[in-house]
Each structure stands twice: as C-alpha cells, then as structure tokens.
Amino acid sequence: MTHHALVRPARLAVAVSLSAALAATGATADDGLGNYRDRFEPLPHLPPIPAENSLTKEKVELGNMLFFEPRISSSGVISCATCHNPALGWSDRIPRATGHDGQIGERNTPTVLNSGFLGAQFWDGREPDLEGQALGPIQADIEMAMDLEVALERLDRFAIYQEKFAEAFPNDENPINEQNLAMAIASFERTLNTPNSPFDRYLRGDLDALNQQEKDGMVAFVDNGCIACHRGPAFTDSHFYAIQVPGSKDVGRFDVTGDEADMYKFRTPTLRNVGVTYPYMNNGATETLEEAVAIMGREMLNREFDDATIADITAFLHTLTGEMPDFEVPALP
Amino acid sequence: MTHHALVRPARLAVAVSLSAALAATGATADDGLGNYRDRFEPLPHLPPIPAENSLTKEKVELGNMLFFEPRISSSGVISCATCHNPALGWSDRIPRATGHDGQIGERNTPTVLNSGFLGAQFWDGREPDLEGQALGPIQADIEMAMDLEVALERLDRFAIYQEKFAEAFPNDENPINEQNLAMAIASFERTLNTPNSPFDRYLRGDLDALNQQEKDGMVAFVDNGCIACHRGPAFTDSHFYAIQVPGSKDVGRFDVTGDEADMYKFRTPTLRNVGVTYPYMNNGATETLEEAVAIMGREMLNREFDDATIADITAFLHTLTGEMPDFEVPALP
User: Fold this and answer.
1) A173 annotated active-site
2) For an interface test with A, which of B88, B104, B167, B192 has the most A Cβ atoms less than 10 Å from its Cβ?
3) Is 80 exceeded by the pLDDT of residue A90?
4) Which CATH superfamily groups domain B13-41+194-318?
5) Nearest to A277 by CA among A50, A158, A134, A114
6) Contact B6/A61 with Cβ under 8 angstroms?
7) Where does the Cytochrome c domain lie (chains A, B) (predicted)?
C-alpha cells in the first residue's frame, strides 16, 4: 500500500524552478550515470496539441466544468471526476471501474494524468486521442450510461453553458454539440500533467534528486529491458503487447480489431505517477508495485527478479510521481 | 433554473472587507428599512463550536480528507462529497439522493453549507448535531452502505490516517474509532460557511448591496410571515412543521418519534444559498425558487402570493448566496 502526505495541488513551481536552477549551476558532482540518463526524457509541461484542437483558456475552462459535471450521466451523480478522482491520482484506486447503478467493469481505470502524451487511448487503444476517448465513458452502459443527445440538451438548458461553449467555439453557430464537448474535455485533460518529479529534476541535472537505491533502480530498469516498452516522456511506447495477468480473461485489443494476432494485447501503460495509481494491471488485481514489477519481469521479460532488484526498481518508479496539477473545482450552474 | 458564473472558491475576503469598510463610513443614505433589517442577523464566519469537540486545524484537515474519502463506502466510489458536491453548492441538484448501486432515496439532499448553524440535522431532525449526522449516510443501505467497523479498518491500513488521527486526537490510545471519525468530519463541515452574501453586506451597512426589488422582497418576506420560521443567522428556527408538498407521502418526523403529532413534520430548512441548492422541498420535486415560494405561501401561510410578490421574494432569496468556502481537494493515500 502506498502512503503519501496530504499535499496541496501544486503552487510549488517557483520553489522547484529555483532548486532546478541551483542544480544547473553544477554544484553536484557527476554520478557516472550519464549514459543511463540519456535513455530518458523529462516530462514536458504540455503534451503535443493537435492542430485541429488548439489549446485555449476558454476550452480549458469549459472542459474543467464538464469534467466535474454529473448531469452528463443518466443518474445525475457520476462525472468524469468520479472515476478520474483528483483526490486519488485522477483515478479511483479500486481494481475495476464502478459506474452506473454500481455496475463493475472489466478493467482498471487509467489515470487521466499525462494522458495527452499517450499515442492511443484506453487499455485496448480503441481511440487514438483524447477527443475520441472523452465521449466513450459518457455513453458506456456500465459507466455514465448517458445518451449524448440528452447530455447536450441538459447542458443547453443552462445559460452559462451556452455562453461558455460560444466563447470556446466562437465560429460555430450551434456550439453545444458532440464534437465540441469532446474537444473541451480533451483540452482540459491536456493540462493535467505532472512535471518536475524527482526523476525529471534528476534528468535536468539535479543529481541529488535521486538517492542511491533509486539510481540503482533506474539502472536495473534499463539493463533488464523495461525501457524497451516503457520509454519516452510518459514511459510508454503506446504499442500493444500480449499479456495475461493473474485472474484476467480479457482479450484486450482483439475486441477492437478482430485480428487473432491482437488476442490479449494491451497498450503499454504509462509509468508516470505509478506510485499513486494503484492497483495495477488491466484487471486491477495487483495491489502493490513490488508485485507488479515481479509480474512484469516474469510475463514480459521472462525473468525472475530477486527481491533487491524489485525493491530498487520500485524505489525508482516512485521517483516518477510529479507535481499534481493545479485545478479548481468549478462552481457549476 | 438558476444560472451563475464559474467562480473560484473564495479568496475574495480582502476585497469584501474593503467594500464593507467603505460602506461602514456611511457613504450611503439610509433607505428607511432599519426596522426590517433589525429582524435579521448576518451569518457569522463560524457556527457555535460544541465544548466536547473543539475546532482544531488537525481535526479540520483530517475531516477534509475523510469528506472526500470514497473508501469509507462499500463500493469504494462514493464519498460524502458525492452527494454533498462542492461543485453543486455542496449538494447534488437532483430531486432525491442517489447512492449505493444507484438506489434513489426518499429525500432531497440538504446542503452541508452552514449546517453547523442548524439546531437539528436531517429533514426529520433525527440527529441533534453534525457529529451524529456524519455517521448516518456512511451506514445507510441506500447511501454509502458501509459497515463502520470495515470503514475504520480500511482507514487503519493507511499510515497517513494513523498519523492524522493521532495528531487530531492526541489523547486517545486508539484514535481511529467511530467517535473520532464523526468528530473530524463534523469539524470540517463547521468550516463550510458562506458569509458576506449581498444580504449580509446590506445588514452590515452597505445599503447598496441590495437593489430595490431585493429590498421589496425582504419587506414581503417579513410582512407575510416567512420570517416566523426562517429566522436567525441561517434562516431557520430548527423546529418542525407539518407539510405535504405535491408528490410526497413522506411521514417525516413521525418516523423518528412515533408521535402522531409529528406526522408529516419536517425541520425548517435553511434559506442560506437557496438560490444554488435547487431543487426544493423534502422530495426535491420543486424545480424553481418561484414555485417553492408559491408553495410555501399556500401551504404554510395560507396565502396566494401574486406574481410580483413571488418575484420580489425570489430576488431577495438570491441575495442569501454567500461566498463559497475555500477548500482543497485532498491528496488521499
């Protein structure tokens, strides 16, 4: 079980920049691991922004409202923030998502944090981007169970949503529509990033940001091949690999493509903030990070990690927990 | 339907104090309504604090965590904040509370805002104080459906809760217990107050804080007798009155006392923030404030208000919306 202190959402940017600046003066001696550091990339403050959905403050503000808006669920009490709960690492910390009428889905809720960096959305990659993702859970029978037309009608009853959609999409005659709903939510989600983790500070030159065990874990992570799939700024290649974790019968990407070659395949999950987004695996059946590391070694790398290696890699993974994004709970109409 | 702009939680205290100070210089001429103003009391920043549960920052911080903690529900996804949603006036804006497995209760969710000022909790007053109230919804089958012992065991698994309970209740050997759970949540709730509404500023001497229609509404509110029950700082006497609103068969306080005299009786609800805590009445069947005013005139005062009077009283009631409390969504373990 992972424990961490009550933290206030962000506001640490100044302090962190200062320590990064100090580190950049080169006060710390080299630790001889430059060839390992070169394999990684720090997390940018923003993910790539698609040309067809420019990131504007009007869309982000509207998306923030919609993300917390339970009236776009048929029960009127479930919002995006119910399962992507900002108090719980923007996920839900239960094995499998629980939605409309208490129905329990087949898969573990992925965090929204840094999801703009993913090359495919959902465990099975059935949507390429956040715009495509956003409308899925609203309509899914076991999640928000809502007809999109009804959702849009409900929003249209509020003058404030008429205003905010018009401001966010000034060229549209009827801005309250499916596409704009998706674009606004996706825009808000693209602001939910967690830069300046200890590991990012380390990559940027603060060589004291990781202790020796965490550095040993980084070395083991590279040398054992974890980095083959968990690479890039979000620690995922966004590709699909077959894996059947204990207790799972989920066929994964096969459901999307119908291609036998995709049987049991799932998209590599991000490891950013993995220390605060337990439980793990597509079915959420793995409670601890140590267990998850052991399973991945066994299933994906055909290795039995010894306890010391598991402890080192786990310590390293905890350094990927960044600053939680600043946000406001909106006052909804 | 009530509409209002997206507002950031509070941070207006300085600006408001300034305008109050300016008003206090007496720049505004008297409006001749001093004898009406004298019938009201502005909302204090804090409600009465019970001697047996002193308000400490440690209890408030712990209570803040627990208020947003879904692991004290049996599904693991429902917290106090689900129905008492800070985005929705700390209520849910649906007719009747929807809880565990989508079950719908018999009554409308009362707001937590200013609930420390109430002399009795729940629509039927079955608990005298917030400490008694706090444990009810956690255990109710149709709300969080949780066994308290299991809830406490879950909390006890997190080192951070062991620490925070010990800090909040330093004299207890085993601080993670029912009583302290209730005391912490109640302490947090006592901080959720909404001072400095336009009407409070008006009462404190800023005679321009209400426009003429709102002042006419105040006069009508007094002259028609609404103030007989809706009085004191929270606009409630916390007494019980028989009422059967359209569509309700709820016997109210009779269920608590078994006394025939309590049949259909409900506690006078607060009118603070009534503009943002729709829908109305014990069964939530009344959508607009205008309708609610008309029903109350008819049922409680035996009067048919004309449209102008309804409009005036409604305008007045909207001036009871105060500054939403500052709070942080906690980072839970």
Assistant:
1) no
2) B88
3) yes
4) Cytochrome c-like domain (1.10.760.10)
5) A114
6) yes
7) 212-321
